[in-house]
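Prompt: I keep going back and forth on a fold encoding question. Comparing notes only helps if you start from a blank page. Show me how you would write down a chain together with its backbone fold. Please set it down just below, with no commentary around it:
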Amino acid sequence: MSKGIQPRTLKGFKDYFTDDMKIRDFIRNTFKDLAKEYAFEPLETPALEYSELILGQSGQEAEKLYYRFKDQGNREVMLKYELMIPMCRAIAQNINNITFPYKRYQLQNVWRADNVQRGRLREFTQMDVDIIGSGSYIADAQVLQFGLEFLGKLGFSNYVVRINSRKIIQGILEALNIDLSQFENVYIAIDKLQKIGKEYVKEELVNKGIDEDSIEKMFSVIDANDIEQTGKILSKTEIGKEGVEEIKNILEILKNSGIEKKFVQFDLTLARGLASYTGAIWEYEIVDDNIGSVSGGGRYDRVIEKYIGRDIPATGTSFGLERLTEVLKDRDISKKILEESAEVLLIPLDQNSVSYTTGIAKELRQANIIANIYPDIQKLKVALKYADKKSIPWVIIIGENEVKERRVLLKNMIKKEQSLLTIKEVVEKISK
């Protein structure tokens, strides 16, 4: 006798069943609804892109994680690593049909050959909002405000957005006379400070050719972590001054928008690893239980330029659906999400009861009650066992007598109570 094919999933890829899907849908719907309130417009892009259009955009570290291959037509293609670069390609390709500033939101899967851990998979869903065609710090502030409000709507209370600027990091290099050819090495190393500590970062930078004295001076600036003091240190560098002024303006807008100071933090240790960032950068973190980062973003003014040869400024942020799902599953809010609205299992006891049962189900759905008809006519206890296993709180039993009297037998599976009612009485009872 054949054993059949063993069912399995690839490492880093996952199936999602009911409980996970309810939480995922709650997060997605919250994101979409808020994006619409902020006047962001929906966009979708293909899963596959020409490799040549994406390579060189995200930096060497990111490119190590690309899923690249040749298709049947011998074309070099890749699964999209993120949503941002394909969006920029789409905008460049349709540049004459888009009104700027263009505000877009997008929820789609991306693929990365990354190390697998809880909340970090190789196929996952990103949720992005971006503003394209505006170089203003006001656009950055709008995106930041959206993210803070989104986390609040998900039910979090203890979270923060950490903010810095690539311009400030470049300004530090200029102020300390560190060769600007080291810029990418520096921001990649700084981005690892909180993960591996100063000594390892220092070792990494020394190996890249930066002298220890310059590294120590850079650490002293970062350790101060004060926007005013940073502004004084960078007062003779144009790019650094510009970065400090933009961050100050962003912080002022967030403050005047009623966002409490505890939710916003200037942080010079934040650098972000992607090569495409050009200005303000940020990460959202859940402070409770040391959960850490759940989103990152920033300004990327030169990506679309690579496709069309002219500057199109852009800014945006990205949330990972799987990461947020794992975090919410450990919290009380998930219980409310999973409870959702009332559900009823309708059980016809014989073939003659099926038509009446179908009509009752339709009336329940019109009253916004989830109505599930048990499809197999067999022993009642089998259907009741199914309802019990699925934690369905209400059961409607319909047999010959119920059809004649135009009523139903409503059973409360939790209280183990039942009564003969009209459909109107059923709706009133369940909707309480």
Observations:
- The chain has a mean pLDDT of 92.
- The two ends are 55 Å apart (CA to CA).
